[in-house]
Design brief:
It contains 17 helices and no strands. By secondary structure, it is mainly alpha-helical. Helix 2 (about 30-55) packs antiparallel against helix 4 (about 75-90). Mean pLDDT is about 75; it is low at about 130-145, about 275-280 and about 400-405.
């Protein structure tokens, strides 16, 4: 099986995955604002492959009259996909109900206009496609303009993809910061896989761009070179679709808007029972009072041991508005919620490793961590060493050099 046949097989896998994910996502009833854009992302991906499968598998007898017009009609979908993926990430990282998309025309119209220009240009030049398929060598001079026109449109497509990759990265940065403001444990809410999608997509664009100078300067035979580039591109595209399919189907919105609304309602009920000064703008004296409440909740009641502890839980426990708790943590205690709670967890973990014979795994779960990896990461960040090394030093009678918040 040569590179061309392998490329067709890989594209068939991508087509099957896209159809499956499209069907599953359309059937979901919850969080439709998140999953509908992803469903259409997979749907458009499947449609773009359909004409070429009909052509390669000899399903129909008149490929020029049916397949190529079909491919032309589906061409605009290629420009829509980056926008749909950005919509999915936007919904996945949102903290509350999403409003309408701003600048709709800026998002949608350029993609369709460019794709329609391609379609119009190609529809009125059928000689080019007929010559390419039937190997007719005599072509009108104006057909030569198709090549540079295609290069320009390819460049525009790469710019569109690059723009939305940048927008996705900005969403991820904001989301990562916000998750650490709201949750003491981030497992299950991390979106590292989307960052990997961005990396693979960027590499795929770079790889595709390399084919242009290769074909222009003639490194190797034109047919063999094209097959190699197509094969690698098919592998990368399949990898992207597979990762999006695996993670897109299993993840839920990380900031859990429903839970946030529940806690906000609870805090509003508590606010009616609080003294007037508790509901006023946060001042220095009030911030100090809230900080003492938070410290007491951690030191005396060991609230940090709750693996699912959130900012809203802490706010409800100390009877203070969640916004004031967040402001106190950042301004007075100078830490976000994630680092503050994990600092307390590591403080107790270090004490347990020093004074007891408990295993590292037992200590991990006792102080509130959900996994060994997150415990090791937090421990190394706080104390500059691993739990195992720290425990060995203590067992040998040495001292641990580090500060614990």
């Amino acid at each position: 099986m040569d590179e061309s046949q392998l490329s067709i097989a890989l594209e068939a896998c991508q087509f099957a995955i896209s159809l499956f994910c499209f069907n599953i996502l359309l059937l979901r009833q919850r969080n439709q604002r998140v999953y509908i854009p992803l469903a259409f992302f997979f749907g458009t991906n499947a449609l773009m492959f359909l004409p070429f499968f009909l052509l390669n598998l000899d399903v129909i007898d008149a490929p020029i009259k049916i397949v190529w017009p079909m491919a032309i009609c589906f061409a605009p979908l290629m420009f829509l996909q980056p926008f749909l993926f950005w919509l999915f990430v936007r919904g996945l990282t949102a903290e509350d109900d999403l409003g309408p998309v701003k600048y709709k025309l800026l998002h949608a119209l350029p993609h369709f206009i460019v794709a329609l220009l391609i379609a119009i240009f190609v529809v009125f030049s059928p000689t080019f496609f007929i010559a390419e398929i039937t190997m007719i060598s005599q072509l009108p001079v104006w057909v030569l303009y198709l090549a540079p026109f295609g290069l320009v449109m390819t460049g525009v497509y790469y710019m569109v993809v690059g723009t939305y990759l940048l927008l996705v990265v900005l969403l991820l940065r904001r989301y990562k910061s916000r998750v650490k403001d709201l949750f003491a444990t981030t497992e299950g809410r991390e979106l590292t896989w989307i960052a990997w999608i961005a990396v693979i997509a960027a590499f795929s664009i770079a790889w595709s761009a390399l084919e242009i100078p290769d074909q222009a300067f003639g490194f190797g035979s034109e047919e063999q070179s094209h097959d190699i580039y197509s094969f690698v591109e098919a592998v990368l595209n399949l990898l992207i679709i597979w990762i999006i399919g695996i993670w897109g189907l299993r993840l839920k919105p990380g900031l859990s808007p429903a839970a946030a609304q529940k806690h906000h309602r609870a805090m509003q009920e508590n606010a009616d029972k609080q003294p007037k000064y508790e509901r006023s703008a946060l001042g220095e004296e009030q911030a100090s009072r809230i900080a003492r409440k938070i410290e007491a909740a951690m030191e005396q009641e060991k609230l940090y041991r709750d693996p699912g502890l959130s900012l809203w839980d802490l706010a409800q426990h100390v009877g203070v508005n969640s916004n004031h708790v967040s402001q106190t943590l950042n301004a007075t205690l100078e830490k976000n919620f994630f680092d503050y709670v994990n600092g307390w967890r590591i403080k107790e973990a270090a004490a347990l490793l020093q004074s007891t014979s408990k295993s590292i795994l037992d200590v991990t779960y006792e102080v509130g961590f959900n996994s060994r990896s997150s415990f090791y990461t937090a421990f190394k960040r706080e104390l500059g060493t691993t739990p195992k090394a720290y425990k060995n030093v203590q067992s040998e009678g040495g001292g641990a050099v580090s500060k614990v918040a």
